[in-house]
Design brief:
The complex is a heterodimer.
Chain A: E1 6-10, E2 21-23, E3 38-40, E4 45-50, E5 55-60, E6 71-74, E7 87-89, E8 94-99, E9 102-107, E10 118-121, E11 132-136, E12 141-150, E13 154-163, E14 174-177, E15 185-192, E16 197-203, E17 213-218, E18 229-231, E19 241-247, E20 252-257, E21 262-267
Chain B: H1 2-6, H2 9-36, H3 68-78, H4 81-94, E1 100-103, E2 109-115, E3 120-125, E4 130-135, E5 151-154, E6 163-168, E7 175-179, E8 185-189, E9 201-204, E10 209-215, E11 220-225, E12 230-235, E13 246-249, E14 258-264, E15 269-274, E16 277-278, E17 290-291, E18 297-298, E19 316-317, E20 321-326, E21 337-340, E22 349-355, E23 360-365, E24 370-375, E25 386-389, E26 398-404, E27 409-414, E28 419-423, E29 435-438, E30 454-458, E31 463-467
Antiparallel strand pairs in B: 2-3, 3-4, 4-5, 6-7, 7-8, 8-9, 10-11, 11-12, 12-13, 14-15, 15-20, 16-19, 17-18, 20-21, 22-23, 23-24, 24-25, 26-27, 27-28, 28-29, 30-31
Classes of the chains: A mainly beta, B mainly beta.
Chain lengths: 272, 468
């Protein structure tokens, strides 16, 4: 992808439109492809991982153009190795960064070479490359997803659920996994605490499949459980859903699709 | 009781069974709702603790065959019309179309190369995932909506997605197109290819290839690798899992998020543009050298050290640069020349092109909205000898640049405005192009959504943040 950016589109933007603003350029310190981003409504800040420089960048919420970040987490104490994804807990002020078979947790205000305040790691966590992360700060849950090799059952997508404050070799409280979940290749997740719901983007093995969808589960669902609602698939509009975000005020679910190079807004009051 | 006593034993047993099933069903639903939603600790969306889920001391087991939720679904399925209506509404919800879509319905030019023998210009399109071939002299009239390509390669069979660089073989017109970070494949099409056709051959490449340069004399092709801050060299005819012939990688190389690459055949030098972010890679003593995004296989000696070997906390932010190497160099080799510093005006230097006769280096300076031209022998904090920039040039987020030596023309692809523009190589300042090929109606806005990977909602400004 030739040109990375963080673009801000008006909520009602439609079709071939320019973003209202775009964060891009040498001073921003970002690069391709930005695999995650969090907006902090409490501080009005944007938080982005930087894979190559092993850093977490924080921008002003209204940042525009070739603007430098206001804070940078980076250095040997951070233990950051390949930070591609993150999740923000805006209530408790923490940033969660998956790192292959670990999750590093940093203070939101961390600046420079700051050590994690806790690390979730160890064989009992069952973390084996779970790359996507979401936090429910109200019900104190941490969600990690990825694809696991399950003895006797092959490759299976799964969502691991931990206590938000889990650290060390903690076991998951629950695992969402199995054929009824249809979780094949789980991708980005988002939590809606008021309705206790978890939304997960699911891609099939086949590239650009019309069977890809976003599934909605209760945050307390566990085991081999069908999604309560789905957006897209089978033979639906989504081909490779990536980012998911919510606009609760307008009861909208917003989904980015890589294959279609588009951002879709769905009215989905069932979730709100 | 009187009624029950009048029932035959068989009927009694049947009704008893029904009652037991009903009680069991109630208990299942009741237990599900209790397990599914722990009691609220004081209302919705407040910073409170809730009753934790039961501690699981034993090894975590998957609930097979069913959780209470599954039992509930089975019960619902058996419950008849009401459940059927629910399923209908769920299916309808799944098929609900979006109320709004942000996206570009036109091709967006990324990389460019000229076939001087057949008088064609070839461009990659990272929006609709295509390769577009135009007559070299095509010039979209101002009143026209757009120029139709002579040929288009597009579709799932093509393996085309985010093709960010391009090479056209002057001997036979073969098109080499490099995918950045979604396919890990360099695809090669014959000049006759059109439509939804598979490539004539493909080469499995390291993740995040960006630039391509080919040395016809040695019949080798060179690729930059963003993730691994490396340059790999393959045989030009490599295919499948053929390994690289050489590798440039290591802290001494000063490669840092390398993008564009160009070969000066006269000097036998290779030029690489760097955006400036990098981390160190090491193989721990006694450990195998691994390759792949997740380090899931042993690496060939000329494959770059993958991110599994990244040294935690070694990441750096450096100024952007152009680094220069002997084309045949390998290993952890320092550059023989570095262009870097505030005078250079480099701002996300992306594609590169060389005019070997004039000894000039052209840089597509993405967020500088410019083409900066250096003396190819420049070193250090050197100012460009020319800068092509301004509203008349139409240059907006240029990601491709190509020097057509035969026709003495400079091509620029603008990711930011659906155009490819042609200039004299000596053009500077705010000079209008000689010709323009447009892929969209004049002034069509460009969302520039190349791989929209993540979205967030800015509730303060009512904006959708899209990171690519």
């Amino acid at each position: 992808m030739a040109h990375p950016q963080i673009a801000a589109f008006a909520r009602l933007a439609e079709g071939n439109v320019k973003p209202r603003r775009s964060i891009a350029g040498q001073n921003t310190l970002i690069t391709r492809t930005i695999h995650d981003l969090a907006y902090d409504p409490v501080r009005d800040e944007i938080i982005v991982p930087q894979l190559f420089a092993q850093a977490i960048l924080t921008f002003r919420g209204g940042a525009d153009g070739d603007e430098a970040p206001i804070r940078i987490l980076q250095g040997p104490k951070t233990q950051l190795s390949d930070p591609e994804r993150l999740a923000l807990d805006p209530v408790h002020g923490e940033i969660f960064v998956p790192a292959i078979d670990r999750v590093l947790v940093f203070p939101r205000d961390g600046q420079g070479d700051v050590a994690p305040i806790r690390i979730l790691e160890g064989p009992d966590t069952q973390l084996r490359g779970e790359g996507n992360v979401a936090v429910d700060p109200v019900h104190n849950l941490l969600f990690m997803n990825g694809v696991a090799r399950v003895p006797g059952r092959g490759r299976m997508g799964q969502v691991l659920v931990f206590d938000r404050t889990a650290s060390g070799n903690a076991k998951p409280k629950a695992i969402l996994r199995g054929p009824m979940t249809q979780i094949d290749n789980p991708y980005k997740m988002v939590v809606y605490p008021p309705r206790k719901l978890l939304l997960v983007g699911i891609r099939t093995e086949h590239a650009a499949s019309e069977d890809s969808f976003v599934g909605v589960w209760s945050i307390y669902d566990t085991g081999n459980v069908s999604p309560r609602w789905t957006i897209g698939g089978p033979k639906g509009i989504l081909r490779q859903p990536r980012g998911i975000t919510l606009d609760p005020k307008n009861k909208n679910v917003i989904i980015a699709d890589k294959y279609l190079n588009s951002v879709f807004t769905f009215s989905f009051p069932e979730v709100f | 009781m009187a009624l029950i006593s009048r029932l035959p034993n068989k009927t009694f047993r049947f009704y008893s069974f029904v009652v037991l099933i009903a009680i069991a069903g109630f208990l299942v639903i009741h237990s599900y709702s209790r397990q599914s939603e722990p009691p609220s600790a004081g209302g919705d969306a407040k910073l409170v603790s809730v009753q934790p889920l039961p501690e699981m001391d034993a090894a975590m087991c998957e609930w097979v065959p069913a959780s209470a939720r599954t039992s509930l679904l089975i019960w619902q399925r058996d419950a008849g019309p009401r459940a059927a209506a629910s399923d209908v509404s769920r299916v309808a919800a799944a098929k609900r179309p979006p109320i709004r879509t942000v996206g570009d319905s036109y091709s967006v030019f990324s990389a460019v190369a000229v076939d001087p023998v057949r008088n064609e210009v070839v461009m990659t399109d990272e929006n609709l995932f295509s390769i577009l071939v135009y007559d070299r002299l095509e010039n979209t009239p101002p009143g026209a909506s757009l120029s139709e390509p002579k040929r288009m390669i597009r579709g799932l069979e093509t393996m085309l997605e985010f093709q960010c660089s391009l090479y056209v073989d002057p001997a036979n017109g073969d098109i080499y197109a490099v995918n950045n970070d979604t396919m890990n494949r360099l695809v090669v099409f014959s000049r006759e290819a059109r439509g939804n056709v598979p490539p004539n051959r493909f080469l499995e490449t390291p993740h995040t290839t960006f630039g391509i340069a080919v040395d016809e004399k040695s019949q080798e092709l060179m690729l930059t690798i963003q993730d691994d801050a490396a340059v790999v060299t393959y045989s030009k005819t490599a295919k499948g899992n053929d390994p690289p012939l050489r590798l440039i990688q290591g802290d001494q190389t000063q490669l840092a998020d390398p993008h564009g690459i160009a070969i000066d055949p006269k000097k036998d030098f290779v030029y690489v543009s760097n955006w400036g972010t990098v981390n160190s890679r090491r193989v721990p003593a006694g450990q195998p050298r691994l390759a792949g995004e997740s380090g899931d296989r042993l690496a060939h000696e000329n494959e770059p050290l993958g991110r599994i070997h990244a040294v935690p906390g070694s990441g750096k932010f450096l100024p952007p640069s152009i680094t220069v190497y002997s084309r045949a160099s390998s290993g952890n080799t320092p550059p023989i020349q570095v262009i870097q510093g505030s005078q250079t005006q480099l701002n996300w230097p992306t594609a590169l092109a060389i005019d070997p006769e004039r000894g000039e280096l052209f840089v597509a300076n993405d967020t500088g909205d410019s083409i900066v031209v250096f003396n190819a022998a420049a070193e250090g904090d050197a100012a460009p000898i020319r800068v092509l920039k301004g509203s008349k040039t139409l240059i907006k987020n240029p990601t491709g640049v190509y020097f057509d030596q035969k026709n003495n023309e400079l091509w620029v692809t603008n990711f930011g405005n659906h155009t490819a523009a042609v200039f004299k190589p000596t053009a500077s300042g705010d000079t209008p192009p000689l010709r323009v090929i447009r892929s969209a109606p004049l002034s069509t806005p460009a969302p520039m959504l190349g791989n929209p990977h993540v979205v967030a909602f800015d509730s303060k400004r009512e904006e959708i943040l899209v990171a690519t």
